[in-house]
Here is the input.
Amino acid sequence: SQKIEQNSEALNIQEGKTATLTCNYTNYSPAYLQWYRQDPGRGPVFLLLIRENEKEKRKERLKVTFDTTLKQSLFHITASQPADSATYLCALDGSSSNTGKLIFGQGTTLQVKP
Amino acid sequence: DTAVSQTPKYLVTQMGNDKSIKCEQNLGHDTMYWYKQDSKKFLKIMFSYNNKELIINETVPNRFSPKSPDKAHLNLHINSLELGDSAVYFCASSRGTGSQNQPQHFGDGTRLSIL
Here is the structure.
């Protein structure tokens, strides 16, 4: 069956450290993968998109990797800050015709402690 | 200016009632979506419209009926509300039909509680 899983529901780290979140998928062949941030009581906010032919994508303190052999994406936040505390969602297009049918992982809630 | 706005933000109602949630986007996007986020925080797509045409219709009870009067609006009408309909409903929009290169912009959700 098709699945997209984020490795942990919660991740606690110390301010200044690098947070690494994992997204694994099964029985999908996505051409790209997206990462979103969701704060309590708010809608998800788009962060980064990475295509299958891109090994790595960066945006400020954020870095995403995409390994289509391992069927895995890693999301890194370097020099983490308490303001980075939120739930992070990975998503891929679950359709065979690029209809924008995003399938989301269950999310990892990151808590950065000062 | 709010890019994707939903009303109401909170909706508390009795089982069996009919209710509507409205969504508007001012981003000039062609595609709009409805998602349901349950108590376990899983976000699942329900419907998608592109230029007022239905393109995604997931396995959703036919008590749920989306309506798109124009490409800037996508409303969700729910008949005969049930306890299991309690969730947060998110509206989103994006450019074009495919999600490649096109992130989705979400509203802040409508929290529906069925008594």
Summary: Chain B touches chain A through 30 residues (CB under 8 Å). Residues 57 and 76 of chain B are 13 Å apart (CA to CA).
